[in-house]
Design brief:
three-stranded antiparallel β-sheet, 523 residues, 16 helices, 2 domains
């Protein structure tokens, strides 16, 4: 009879330190964990497998503990990686960079377990616990590179066929047929994460050799990427053959999972071959034995871990992460040139920005460009979205913040907006998928005194802003819709007129800020 797994006081006492450590780390990282789990609830995104993978992780941990009974103690060396992980989490809170805090979650948990268990025992938990890293939404940073790789592969495949096409960025133009955008959802990130999870789980359960696990992992990654490349190529080709009438264009998600499932067939045969090889080469290893747990050493480990956690918690600059339900409104003095039009959107378009502290959103027309019959050929949009400081659910660069609704608007062209303001401004032409109407948008990010047009560079500016006396982050965005005018010229003129006044208002409203932003724009 196996008595050690019958619940009792001994079992409860054995695992009580681990429960206390887990609770302590959970309380410390609660705002970050809340942000991670909120992404799991979004079933149409890349992290909808989070709850399932959490359950699998718990199962594998239980299986590992059964095979390798836990003996607790005090292993002081592992306090070093624990302190480094906590330092990284604290730094992420200090510079308002949630992605850095998310990156430290799994290393923080593993190093805390290592303090209690030591390397000889915690090594069996690396894969079961490490699976949780595939549920942390930091993999989005790979999305853009995966999109470019997918476009490059499909450019090569389409070049083998008699198809007239052009490629620009993430857009594939089928001449005379239509345009495909290899968007975020077409990057293959979902298949990559799921593929990695499947091969890691299979390797943990059935493979004994490290070389076999590494080989299977590489094959899993390769098959996941190939599945997405095939999916995108078939959709583009069917769009070409059917003049954009194929049902695959609208139902491409389900089709993608069928292609991914097909690639699992050869992957299974490879995994099975590796499993048989490992079984032939395996030998009976001697059972590991450990010393009996010492209450004193366990108490020292638990005390050291909790002290580090409490010190980190007390040093965090903010713990509750307040978010403004009703943002304050800016007052921009541009009424001499521009007059407001009822509404805060342009032809049905407006940026989707969540939880800013201060905003200005207005549709306008140029008083000087009214025609003789009183009609308005041009309409403009000016938007300012400011976060006084960035924190959980109130960050300038986050997944919920989008320049446009991709289900309604399709980007047609990207370009740099050349102005006399000496700041980088990105331009984009959007086309309404239903009406075919175009609007032209210009935007720039002002993050802690630094101007950026790329989202990831704007995210990085949060780190560089640690050395600045500013903590604010703003999106300045302008757009124009016109009939007979030259839209880009009108957009440049509108930006040069409104952006300096907008930056001046930001600096005046946010007390204690320097004039760095206005000095840069005025050079």
């Amino acid at each position: 009879m196996i008595r050690e797994w019958i619940p009792g006081r001994g079992v409860a006492a054995q695992f009580l330190p681990y429960l206390l450590v887990l609770c302590g780390l959970g309380l410390l990282a609660w705002p970050t964990l809340e942000g991670v789990v909120s992404r799991w609830f979004k079933l149409d995104e890349s992290y909808s497998h989070g709850f399932l993978l959490l359950a699998v992780s718990v199962f594998l941990i239980a299986q590992s503990v059964k095979r390798h009974p836990v003996t607790s103690g005090f292993y002081p060396f592992w306090l070093v990686p624990l302190c480094l992980s906590l330092l990284g989490y604290w730094l992420g809170g200090l510079i308002r960079l949630q992605a850095l805090q998310q990156l430290t979650l799994v290393p923080m948990l593993l190093s805390a377990l290592a303090v209690l268990m030591g390397w000889r025992q915690v090594r069996w938990l690396i894969i079961p616990v490490g699976l949780l890293f595939l549920t942390v939404p930091v993999w989005d940073f790979l999305s853009w590179n995966l999109q470019l790789i997918t476009v490059a592969v499909n450019k090569f495949l389409l070049g083998l066929l008699d198809i007239d096409f052009e490629v620009e960025g993430v857009f594939v133009y089928l001449i005379g047929v239509g345009t495909f955008e290899v968007a975020h959802g077409c990057s293959g990130l979902r298949y990559l994460l799921v593929g990695q999870a499947l091969v890691l789980i299979y390797g943990e359960m059935y493979l004994s050799r490290l070389s076999s696990r590494v080989l299977l992992f590489c094959c899993g990654v390769a098959f996941a990427l190939v599945a997405n490349w095939i999916r995108v190529f078939v959709i583009i080709y069917m769009g070409y053959e059917t003049n954009m009438q194929s049902s695959l264009i609208e139902d491409h998600d389900n089709f993608g999972w069928w292609v991914f499932a097909a690639t699992l067939v050869p992957l299974y045969f490879i995994a099975r071959r590796l499993e048989v090889r490992d079984g032939e080469c395996s030998s009976n290893a001697s059972a590991e034995t450990g010393s009996v747990s010492s209450r004193k050493s366990v108490g020292i480990s638990l005390g050291a871990i909790l002290v580090c956690v409490v010190l980190t918690y007390s040093a965090l600059p903010e713990k509750r992460s307040p978010v403004s339900d009703h943002p304050e409104n800016y007052s921009i003095d541009i009424q001499q040139r521009y007059a407001p039009v009822f509404g805060a959107q342009l032809a049905g378009w407006r940026p989707q920005i969540q939880n800013p502290d201060r905003t200005y959103t207005q549709t306008l027309f140029d008083r000087q460009r009214i025609s003789s019959d009183g009609s308005i050929d041009e309409q403009f949009y000016l938007g300012i979205f400011t976060y006084e400081f960035q924190r959980h659910r109130a960050e300038l660069i986050q997944y919920s913040n989008k320049l446009y609704d991709s289900s309604v608007w399709a980007p047609q062209q990207f370009y740099r907006v050349e102005t006399d303001l000496s700041i980088p401004i990105q331009g984009i032409t959007l086309e309404n998928r239903l009406t075919g109407e175009n609007i032209h948008v210009a935007y720039s990010y002002l993050v802690e005194g630094r101007w950026e047009t790329d989202q990831w560079r704007a995210k990085l500016a949060q780190v560089l802003g640690f050395f600045s006396d500013r903590s604010d982050a703003s999106l300045l965005i302008a757009a124009v819709r016109c009939g007979e005018c030259a839209p880009r010229d009108s957009l440049v003129n509108f930006v040069e007129t409104t952006f300096p006044q907008s930056v001046s208002t930001i600096n005046q409203e946010l007390a204690g800020l320097s004039d760095e932003g206005i000095s840069v724009i005025a050079e």
